[in-house]
Design brief:
The chain is mainly alpha-helical. 54% of the residues lie in helices and 4% in strands. α1 (9-19) packs across α2, α5 runs antiparallel to α6 (90-105) and α6 (90-105) runs antiparallel to α7. The chain is elongated.
């Protein structure tokens, strides 16, 4: 997956600053891939992802030391990530949340974080005795049961059947771990962005979909149809920011910060 040409380098750099304070805006290919669809449609509003970027837009110079943004995404992940992960113990859920936070902080991307999560899913107390189905949720177990019937009907048996089932179970475990990683990392980034945008004076937000036939018609499309709403409000789905469902690809647009608001924020940081 390549970084979208509609996502200028300034947006990517600003996103790095939002996620971790040690990146210094240096391009990281893994994080670029993770963030590409999140910022590709942000346009002018997205150029104000940080106070530093907003200041640049208004032509205000601020010291480099103040370009760093607190890692709210990691903090949110530590506290809230994996709350909706089904059929795992509380201990496993906490372990997944830690892996999500570490994945954001260390820029491990969806694949790397997914690999980290797989160990937690396999060690989960709930369902750890399910043999090849260990780590899978009920939906994926149903898929495996159906797949086994299909293989038997197709004439597979013995070691050949077992080999195919083991391979598919491994694929399903990888897919589950990646889905959790992608969804929870995007949750953490979107919610931390929402918090930061309110802090820097943004007043309105808008749910933004990818505008294709993969957009969820039950939640995401209606959320986008609301248009601009107050930044402190929730959308009609009940979410204050994406994601609305697993593998949701939506992001938020923001507006409303004036030069005067920015100046007052910078003054509070000791910048005249």
């Amino acid at each position: 997956m390549a970084v979208s040409e509609s996502a200028p380098d300034t947006l990517v750099d600003a996103a790095y600053l939002q996620l971790a304070d040690f990146t210094d805006g240096v391009p990281n290919p893994t994080l670029q891939i993770l963030l590409a669809d999140h910022i590709a449609r942000a346009a002018a509003a997205g150029q104000m992802l940080t106070i530093a970027q907003a200041a640049k837009e208004f032509g205000i110079a601020i010291p480099a030391a103040l370009h760093v943004v607190r890692p709210e995404a990691r903090e949110w992940a530590l506290e809230y990530a994996a709350e909706l992960v089904a059929q795992v113990s509380d201990e496993t859920r906490r372990g997944i949340a830690q892996k999500i936070a570490d994945g954001i902080w260390r820029q491990r991307g969806v694949d790397g974080t997914g690999r980290d999560i797989r160990a937690d899913l396999l060690a989960n107390d709930i369902g750890k005795d399910l043999g090849r189905y260990a780590g899978l949720n009920s939906q994926r177990i149903q898929h495996m049961e159906k797949y086994e019937v299909e293989l038997i009907e197709a004439g597979f048996s013995g070691k050949d059947l077992e080999r195919r089932l083991d391979a598919e179970a491994g694929r399903q475990l990888r897919k589950r771990a990646q889905t959790i990683a992608q969804t929870e990392m995007r949750n953490s980034m979107a919610r931390s962005e929402n918090i930061e945008k309110r802090a820097v004076g943004m007043t309105r937000k808008k749910w933004n979909t990818q505008h294709d036939d993969r957009v969820d018609e039950g939640q995401c499309r209606p959320n986008e149809g609301q248009g601009w709403i107050p930044v402190e409000d929730s959308f009609q789905s009940g979410h204050d920011a994406p994601t609305a469902h697993p593998r949701c690809r939506c992001n938020l647009l923001f507006e409303g910060m004036t030069r005067e608001t920015l100046a007052s924020r910078l003054q509070a940081l000791g910048v005249e």
